[in-house]
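Supplementary notes for students who missed Thursday's class. We covered one full example, reproduced here. Read the sequence, then the structure, then the short commentary at the end.
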Amino acid sequence: MKIRLVCYLLIFSFSLAVGIGCTESETIDPLPPDGDSGIVLENYRLTEDETWESEKTYIVHGTLEIPQNVTLNIPPGTTVKFDRNALVAVEGILKIGTPLAQAQVTQLVYLTSDNVAPAPGDWEGIFFDHTHDLESFIRGAVIEYATVALDVKTTSPTIEACTLRFNETAIALDGSDARIQHNDILDNNIGISTIGRQTLPRIEKNNIAKNETGIHCENVQSTIEHNNLYANIFALRLNVKFDLTVANNWWGSSDPVGIANVIIDGADPGLIIKQVGTVHYEPFTETRIADVGFPYPTLLTGLK
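Structure (token representation):
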């Protein structure tokens, strides 16, 4: 009788151990069995070059880290959702969307909040941390609901054919020669912020509209030309003591007084707290500039 009881106990113990082992294996596997509910990455650090799968959804919790000498490629058709306060930290190379050498964009990458009721500032954004690389690009992406969607420090990615909306700040440039062209930058608190006198970012052929501030500028060597800057509370705010020339843009008006009213510079002592320079916006375009902004509007059909 005792021998039979011992056997039963041994069998029960073995079955319990096997069951526990299976449960642990399931919880640490980041891939769901069918792949339909998304690939979850939590505080994930790349150890080698990666290319994610198109048509998949990736869900980022914590920090997604791209270290030096490592490349992450997020191809067209991919969706990336970010949990609250999630961050992409780029010290290597990040390639989002359609390569620059390809003729046109045919699919988008979506970078968005994972919250049911999304709002600006849900996730931290993408931080380019002094990488000094020239290979990173973002082309053909919708980026929304971040604190700073693209926080670019001392590197110069190309940002082209994107829609950046519902962010606290869409693009922040600090010591960057980035090229920002053919984008729609809409419904943000700040569209573009620039810092750093020794760099030459180029902001050209964008629709910058319906932001509280379209461009907040502390880099007077920025090239800001051939943009449609309209329906912002303030189209441009200068925040440095040097003058800034921004010619050949459309400001939503052909009236110089109306244009001056949406520019904050040294002529507005009641709205500034330090000495700042003057924005020279002439010559300006009297009508909306065609062939600027996101060039593939049919891809945005159905976007909420």
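Commentary. Residues 246 and 281 are 5 Å apart (CA to CA). The helical segments are 2-28, 256-261. If anything here is unclear, bring it to office hours.
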